[in-house]
Amino acid sequence: MKGYTLTGVVVTAFALSLGMAFLGVQPKAVAAAQPDDNESRIQAGFNYARSQGITLDLRKKNRALVGLGSYLVNAVGGCNDCHTAPPFTLDPFAYLGAPKQVNVACYLAGGTPFGPPGPGTPVSRDITPWEDGKPAGLTLDEFVHVIRTGEDPDNPGQVLQVMPWPVYQAMTDRDLRAIYEYLSSIPAIDANICGVPSEP
Predict the structure, then answer these.
(1) Alpha-carbon Rg of the chain, whole angstroms?
(2) Euclidean distance between the first and final Cα of the chain, in Å?
(3) What is the pTM of this model?
(4) Domain limits at 23?
């Protein structure tokens, strides 16, 4: 009887571990042996910036947050699609497997219109560091507030209608800090040279 019970326990343990492996659940010892996922994301962020020719100013910056921020902005968030006008100089949609080249001259400088030209048409915001070195002219706290609430920084009390802030509001504080740190490290773009000029 003891042999049967032991065999049942072994078979049950084997089946459980097989099921965990199938579901992607790993025992702690195996999970601990895996490379740090954050490290790979940080490196991927730096690799992307380098491959696209995006110059980063890392002085007085947290290098790990900049790399993670690049990964979140470029590989996850798709910020370039709306905040760069036009987004690419080599169109990745030209054909299957086409290479892409981000429009570095206008990278994240805003200017993409979301509607017919004219007064009141929403235009994507310049999220590069402004004269004061702050992305979009916002402090970290202001940036986090915009992402968490959708409040338009130019029109307090109004909700941003085009920016997909509801998608990003669930990001961790660390992720938002990383995005801010990355946006603080990219080149500033002079106003009114990309996309639709802003109103005076």
Answers:
(1) 23
(2) 88
(3) 0.79
(4) 1-34
